[in-house]
Amino acid sequence: MAPSKDRLNQLSGHLPTIKAKAAATKANSSPQDFTLKDNATGKTYSVPTPRSTNPKSLTVLDNRTNQLYEVPIQPGNTIDATKFKIMKEEDEEGQVAYPPPGGPGLMVYDPAFQNTAVTRSSITYIDGDEGILRYRGYPIEELAEKSTYLEVAFLLIYGELPSKDQFAHFSDEVMRHTFLHTNVSDLMHAFNYDAHPMGMFITGLAAMSTFHPEANPALAGSDMYLEDSLVRNKQIFRILGKSPSLAAHAYRHRIGRPYNAPQRDLSYAENFLYMLDHLSEPNYRPNPKLARALDILFILHADHELNCSTAAMRHIGSSHVDPYSAAAGASAALYGPLHGGANEAVLRMLESIGGVEAVPDFLQQVKERKKKLMGFGHRVYKNYDPRAKIIRRIAYEVFDICGREPLIDVAIALEEAALKDEYFVKRKLYPNVDFYSGLIYKAMGFPTDMFPVLFAIPRMAGWLAHWVESCQDPAGKIWRPRQVYVGPTKRGYVPLGHRDVPTREVWWPPTMARRTQLL
């Protein structure tokens, strides 16, 4: 569309601002001018790029309306998406045009939240380009070497490392809340013998909310967790304490063995291993090296910023539901093979490769898009996942105790070959946390369907930290994303007897073959 005089006037109206800023911007490269042509006269006009007096802002030109808008750049290098709501397309009579759907104004379309920040958080920092992960400012490498899972859980939830007295009280409260109500145990007994452990874990976690009506905002007040930190802490102790017990119940149920009662005199990881493995040995204690290896894995999995399951925890929690229900929903998100099930997918990939000699052929099939390379690459990391380096070291410590996992040779060969191949290096595909964790769990005797549960236990600390942070956020609101409606416009109802068969494919009723599959 040819530039109109209105547009020229609109742009020229910002010239005084540009002149006022000339001295301040002289040292910088000047912005490129607009060259506009008036088709009516054939004249061209050179108009400087509009600028605001606020250097921390964007100047947006809406080419549909020739309107200029200033959008402030906020701390954290962000902009307020709601500022775009005022940018409306108008028809010839100056009225707001229809659509856009859902109301006037622009919306930011970002499927899968690839570049959308929905909260301000002080919990976890990730620099994907440099391969940096920090909890509350502490490097993950230092925490994995020197700390324990419960200490890290305290750090994530409350913001600082605990004092000696604080940690003693916190760990005592968590371990004191490891026992499950007998009716929860009975519920776990009701599952089929081959029920997936993660399904049992999610169900048990959701059921826990029914045993604590005083902790249900629907019964005790919608703002109870916003106003009472003692009530919040009580649920934190319960969820952290009972999660390993639920997981152990699911595991023991699968192998047909009676449940073991928790042991308060053991550490968090030791108690979990005890509930998994104790038979009839007197004074049984798990291997301390295996317990420490598991504790480090728990630290590495404790939080990872606003991933799929953590976003689910915040999203569900924004409705002010109880934290058990929110954590159950987050666990369900973690259950998916693209999230918590990724290390299981790595294990199956390595098993399908078979041996070291088959690695080159497998990588070639990956390049040809005939196979998928699991355990490499990450939505956030464009460098080596710092957790993967730590897990690789732990793997050898576990193998020294449990025996060398044969697939480790395939994994090492695959990693070395991929990191030397320009195809994968160019795409910044480096091993992530899932690449070696599955091998460790397999060496420790865990069945592959327990892997998501082993992910969920430590992630409880991160979920609860985000839940607490959202409860304390004065700007907190219920989450309500927008959509872009692409369905039909208004149409009239046609009675059933007068409808023609739609031309598009009908999915129901199914064919006889498909009906047999469904049954």
Explain what you see.
It is a single chain. The chain folds into two domains: 5-109, no CATH class; 151-479, Citrate Synthase, domain 1 (Orthogonal Bundle). 47% of the residues lie in helices and 7% in strands. The protein is built from 23 helices and eight strands. Strands 3-4-5 form a three-stranded antiparallel sheet. A three-stranded antiparallel sheet has the order 6-7-8. A two-stranded antiparallel sheet has the order 1-2. Strand 4 (67-74) and strand 5 form a beta hairpin. Helix 5 (149-158) runs parallel beside helix 22 (451-471) and helix 8 (197-208) packs antiparallel against helix 15. Residues 20-55 are annotated as: Disordered. Pathway: Carbohydrate metabolism; tricarboxylic acid cycle; isocitrate from oxaloacetate: step 1/2. GO terms for molecular function: acyltransferase activity, acyl groups converted into alkyl on transfer.
